[in-house]
Amino acid sequence: MKLKIVKDTLIITSLKAFPDLKRQPLMLFLVGLISSLPLYFITVFGGNFGLGLIGAMISAVSFIGMSAAIQDMAFDKYVKIREMIIAMPVHPMSYALGVALAPLILSTPSLVFFGVVALLVGGLTPASLLWAAIAVVLCWACISSVGFLISTYLQKASTYTLNSMSNILGIMLGFLPPVYYGEEVLGSFSWIAAIFPTSNAASLIRVYSGSLTLPSEVFAARWAILITTTIVCTVITAAKSRWREP
Amino acid sequence: MKEAIEATNLVKIYHGKETVEALRSVNISIKKGELFTLLGPNGAGKTTFLRIISTQLMPTNGKVSVLGYDVETEADEVRRHIAVVPQDVATYANYTPWEYSYYFTMLRGVSKPQARSASERALKAVELWALKDRTCATLSGGEKKRAIIAAALASDADIFMLDEPTSGLDAVARRSVWAVLREMVEKGKTILLTTHIMEEAEMVSDRLAIIHKGSVIANGTPEQIKGLAKERFRVVVEGDLKALGLAVNGNHVAKFGSKSIIYVKDEDEAIDLVGRSLKNGLKAETAAVTLEDVFVKLVGGGVD
């Protein structure tokens, strides 16, 4: 049973990622382009390029993670893929994980590119690479779980509403909080960075790369917030969402 | 066990701003290896019934089993034996018919070679093999629909549930789907079909039920259903019946502009009416009543 859940997750991931990747390879560039757009302004206006690269890595997974959880679910309802899968021997967890994992495949080339550049120009240290990867994955999991939570509560919203909402949230989470810039800019309001999974993950990566210092208890709390938000959203989604309609 | 699907006193109530009783104590029994059609106007409860049977929706009351498995408590078992084509199903533009069939068959837990051969068989059966690598964006409406049917067909499930699979298709595409459905039945599969297309119900069904406002109002073979009407023949006359002095002896008449359909009890009466119409210079022809005639009469509309 557990093996089938894993296998089905991979099949749904392939179904959701590979046909698009095969026929719309420009999507890969689009993900990278959207994420790297702020880097242009950072370079032109003399900002910290290293911070910008960490921001690009975070937004590469957050923007697309949010749209997958909301837009894909809405679109699947529209094309009835979800209805067909519900009536099959497939576990709901396989479907949710498959939907969430597919965009990660689309983000991976951008992630690798930004990661390598960050290593080369000093935004990341080799020692911080593993922690950066963990923070990025957790950020993706957290954003996806928030997206699933939203799509669960807005089941009756139209596809258009959900599309707009996912874009707004993607921009809000990826570009407004201190993701591309340091949380120090916010002064006494730097705690805001902890609220958003994106800025929280960015700050954690910066701590590992040595460009930000946080007291050890704050640092531990930041990890806890990221993990707890993911778990809480996942649990609420699991409790509230219905694979089969009541 | 001969029954593939059995619904007993099935009730579904939707609670929202308004409470809607979508199914009212529905009793339907579908035998293994038959093509059973649920025929009804829009909003009659056909899709609700199919969604409950296919484990997508919980019933409010009553008992439903598929191959002896309870749809409420043994949904996982039910899902192993069914394949569904939902209503108004759209295709994902970037998928090819092959990808639809292959990935959906893989989700059944079969091996890659098995999924490949099942997909090949299914796509050949719906005559899409030549187009298997074209994206759905480039296919016609009928081809897209057949791609989805192939994805269901490749599962080799015991029971296929198709919710208005031919709606929106042209006559040629519709007939090719009918042929596929009948072939599946000949191979021993059970099919539950919903439709509001009378000709479809009449042509492909072994048995059918007419569902109206959540209740089954007729159940039987197409011939048995047609036998429910008192009138066995219809005469179509073109022209003003009253102005030309044509007496219709109190028979039921349905008027559509200059054309009228007059329902009569026997063939002699029909032939007599055609003769009199022709004598009065009217165009007229007769035929046996259709399922549509009986359906309209049963659901209470269109007949004066």
* Strand runs of chain B, count: 14
Q: Count up the domains of chain B.
A: 2
Number of helices, counting only DSSP H or I runs of 4 residues or more of chain B: 10
Cα-to-Cα separation, first versus last residue of chain A: 25 Å
What is the spatial order of strands in the main beta sheet of chain B? 6-7-8-3-9-10
Number of strands of chain A: 0
Proportion of strand residues of chain B:
25-35%
- Shape annotation of chain B: globular
Question: What can you see in these coordinates?
Answer:
The complex is a heterodimer of chains A (246) and B (304). Chain A is an all-alpha fold and 246 residues long. Chain A has one domain (2-240). Helix content of chain A is 78%, strand content 0%. Chain B folds into two domains: 3-226, Rossmann fold, CATH 3.40.50.300; 233-288, Alpha-Beta Plaits. In chain B, helix 3 packs across helix 4 (112-125), helix 3 (97-106) packs parallel to helix 5 (141-153) and helix 4 crosses helix 5 (141-153). Classes of the chains: A mainly alpha (246), B alpha/beta (304). The interface between A and B is medium-sized, with 26 and 36 residues.
Summarize this entry quickly.
Chain A is an all-alpha fold. Chain A contains ten helices and no strands. Chain B is of the alpha/beta class and 304 residues long.
Give descriptors for this structure.
heterodimer, A: 246 residues, mainly alpha, 10 helices, 78% helix, 0% strand, B: 304 residues, alpha/beta, Rossmann fold, Alpha-Beta Plaits, 2 domains, 6-stranded mixed sheet, 14 strands, 34% helix, 29% strand
Topology (SSEs and partners):
The complex is a heterodimer of chains A (246) and B (304).
Chain A: H1 2-23, H2 26-44, H3 49-79, H4 81-86, H5 92-121, H6 129-153, H7 159-175, H8 192-195, H9 197-209, H10 216-240
Chain B: E1 3-15, E2 19-31, E3 35-39, H1 46-53, E4 61-66, E5 69-70, H2 75-81, E6 82-85, H3 97-106, H4 112-125, H5 141-153, E7 159-163, H6 171-186, E8 190-195, H7 198-204, E9 207-212, E10 215-220, H8 222-226, E11 233-238, E12 252-256, E13 259-264, H9 267-279, E14 283-288, H10 291-299
Parallel strand pairs in B: 3-8, 3-9, 6-7, 7-8
Antiparallel strand pairs in B: 1-2, 1-4, 4-5, 9-10, 11-13, 11-14, 12-13
Helix pairs in contact in B: 3-4, 3-5, 4-5
